[in-house]
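Blinded run. Sample ID left blank on purpose so nobody reads anything into the name before looking at the predicted structure. Input follows.
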Amino acid sequence: MNKTIMGISIALVALLFIGGVYAYQNNIDKNTANNIDKVACQNAVESGDYNSWKTLHDGTRMASVITEDNFYLMQEMHEAMQSGDYEKAQEIRSGLGLGQGMHKNCPMKNLG
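Blinded prediction complete.
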């Protein structure tokens, strides 16, 4: 009986660990940018359509930082990335308080 309980306990711990690793690697979280339509995001930024951009980013940290008043900075950051000026893009990003780099899930990362 002890071996059966020990085996079940080990299996449960392994399942919880694997589930945690999977969730972390796949950013299973309601505030993730994984599900944002990157093309629609790019179109909204390029056309200056703040409302569409905001709708796409609903519930994300980025939506709480970027406002209609500072959306022009998002456009400047995008233009800087398009032209290859990643230093300027990073300065804008840092100035907005968006962190230290273009994270793998950031929809703006691959727009340049």
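Unblinding after everyone has recorded impressions. The chain has two domains: 1-30, 31-112.
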